[in-house]
Amino acid sequence: MHKILIVAEHHDGKLDPATARCVSCAQKIDGEITLAVLGDAPAAVAAQAAALAGVTRVRTVAHPVHAHALAAAYAPQIAALAAGHTHVLAPSTTFGKDLLPRVAALLGVAQVSDLMQVEDARRFVRPIYAGNALVTVEVPQEQTVVATVRTASWPEAAATAQPAPIAPQAPDVAPPAHTRFVALESGKSDRPDLQNAGRVVAGGRALGSAENFQLLYRLADRLGAAVGASRAAVDAGYVPSDLQVGQTGKIIAPALYIAVGISGAIQHLTGIKDAGTIVAINKDAEAPIFEVADYGLVGDLFKLVPELTQALD
Ligand SMILES: Cc1cc2nc3c(=O)[nH]c(=O)nc-3n(C[C@H](O)[C@H](O)[C@H](O)COP(=O)(O)OP(=O)(O)OC[C@H]3O[C@@H](n4cnc5c(N)ncnc54)[C@H](O)[C@@H]3O)c2cc1C
Q1: Among candidate residues 12, 26, 18, 11, the one with its CA nearest the CA of residue 164
Q2: How far is the CA of 232 from the centre of ligand 1 (A)?
């Protein structure tokens, strides 16, 4: 019987949907699924975790040091909780990518990144070369599988009316003395979260300025969409880096993705591989984005985007 430990990601008392996607991946591995919820007061998040179908149990670790998710503080606790488990999973988000390499190092194993498919409990398919190729990797029998899950490849596990049992756990591990939380600076937005949004409007270098990005914010507001960007737009300072979509940005899977003034470089496309309907607006009919687009508008974005926004009004 496989025993799978999933590290829950949560923010402001809410379980991140990425965790529910990890549960779907774990269900494919097949085994008992334990969700570990670390926090200063983890009860509310634990209740949300327990309500995910397929979860066998939830273990909470309450400590003031976990008021903020610090990989340095989480890792030794997760490594201790991993005892007796065959697998340790976390989402392939900034949180999971920060945490799991440390856990793998503490357990003395190599981490597997970005699980896209499960062939069996130790064989997995993952992307390489910016998603241009897929590779099958196998973890040796004697090693704990420590892996991040490519959330865009997995649906969120459904909710269940019969929640799993929740119990506190107190690993005998002292928090590290070398790392402490100082401050968090983050942009506040009323818009949907880019990583989990069903609709995304993204802009590229062609927007030309931060002010011109307002065109996209207006369109996104009409659609109830999140706003994303290419790396060129981020590097030019038009939008903050947390809006970047692609290989070195966010990997997303919205039902609708509208790419405005984005050429469609492979590093960008790797971030939208699992998007549903892709719409491209570009003045160059030969732009590579049209090779992946379901719908294309060839023309000047400064004319087409206001027209589209007005039509939606
Ligand atoms: C290691 C590495 C990692 C990278 N990671 C990422 C990543 O995560 N995400 C990412 O996006 N990129 C990434 N890149 C960069 C990537 O290669 C491209 O340079 C980048 O995606 C280009 O951004 P863009 O499409 O906005 O700009 P451009 O390639 O300059 O394209 C602009 C497009 O706008 C069109 N256009 C211009 N004016 C208008 C107009 N008025 N109306 C309509 N269309 C117009 C043009 O025809 C063109 O197609 C990475 C590169 C490397 C080497």
Answers
A1: 26
A2: 5
